[in-house]
Design a protein that fits this description.
- The chain has one domain: Rossmann fold (3-Layer(aba) Sandwich).
- It is built from 15 helices and 6 strands.
- Helix 4 crosses helix 6.
- The longest helix is centred in the N-terminal third of the chain and has 13 residues.
- The relative contact order is 0.17.
Length: 310
């Protein structure tokens, strides 16, 4: 993704210009004229940080049943994804009569902040994000992606082994806003949200809380979103938000529905935490800590890592 800060302020952006994030398959400018409604839910995450998981949880809470009336990709569209024409996504959202759940990988400084909406930002340990990104990249059909976006297929360099690639993820240097799926990019996205964490309509969710206590995390979100818990239906909702259930149900993302994934089932790989830490030596972990310490506030890192590193 890249940036363009020429967007003039509008009512939804509270007078502040928005960064324009672009990549071969995303453009945050699609948000600029989005017509918000009361109750809209925006799920803003870095790639492979729990986006689809939180989308599914929100939809289960909104509908109050595991029997969703359609595919996740249609019920909760990805607004700024160039693979689907903007007019098609806008029409889909306009026709929805239920409380809307909209996906984005754009940091909140690139999305209009509207008082009528709730913004959920998910944090996951960056090393786990990196491992998941590595495997996810192998599962993308680049030719199909190029076909849908109308852009030439980018040549791929030889694939590095996972450990070597992870070290490159940690040491990456470059234009952070142009490459958000990097360690600096993950810190930028979360740091922006962390600075807004006291805003009444910004909610931070930790991936590990979903892993360790899905029931409790869903109850917290139901309270934040003002959706009462129906105890009679609740025992069916929590199992429907597990990875196994999403693999077997309508939980596939738009990338799977449009043929961008080689193996849709592999999208939900296994969802555990700690894979990234396990790959690094003690010295490499110290190096990671030194690198990330200069990218984010100490209290945010303590919240994010959950592993005694801070």
């Amino acid at each position: 993704m890249g940036e363009d800060r020429n967007h003039p302020p509008g009512p939804a952006s509270a007078g502040a210009p928005l960064f324009r994030y672009t990549s071969p398959d995303e453009d945050s400018a699609r948000w600029w004229d989005f017509a918000f409604r009361p109750g809209d839910i925006v799920v803003s995450t870095r790639s492979k940080s729990g986006t689809t998981w939180v989308q599914m949880i929100c939809l289960l809470l909104v509908f109050g049943t595991p029997e969703l009336p359609g595919r996740l990709s249609a019920l909760s569209p990805w607004l700024d994804w160039l693979v689907q024409p903007k007019e098609e996504v806008a029409a889909l959202l306009e026709a929805q009569t239920h409380r809307r759940v909209i996906k984005t990988h754009t940091p909140l400084d690139g999305v209009p902040i509207d008082d009528r909406a709730t913004y959920i930002v998910v944090g996951r340990h960056p090393l786990d994000v990196a491992v998941s990104l590595y495997h996810h990249s192998d599962n993308i059909d680049r030719r199909r992606m190029a076909e849908l976006t109308g852009q030439p297929e980018a040549p791929r360099r030889p694939r590095l082994p996972l450990h070597e690639w992870l070290l490159g993820f940690i040491d990456w240097e470059g234009d952070t806003r142009a490459w958000l799926d990097t360690l600096p990019g993950a810190m930028l996205h979360l740091s922006d949200a962390w600075a807004r964490r006291h805003d009444p309509n910004v909610v931070l969710v930790h991936y590990d809380d979903l892993v360790r206590d899905l029931d409790g995390a869903m109850r917290r979100l139901s309270g934040v979103l003002g959706i009462p818990v129906d105890e009679a239906r609740w025992p069916a909702l929590v199992p429907a938000a597990t990875f196994d259930a999403m693999r077997e149900s309508a939980g596939a993302p738009a990338s799977a529905d449009l043929g961008v994934l080689k193996d849709p089932a592999a999208f939900f790989r296994h969802g555990v935490s700690g894979d990234g830490l396990a790959l690094l030596s003690a010295d490499e972990l110290v190096h990671y800590r030194d690198r990330v310490a200069g990218m984010a506030a100490v209290d945010m890192l303590a919240w994010l890592h959950r592993d005694g590193m801070d």
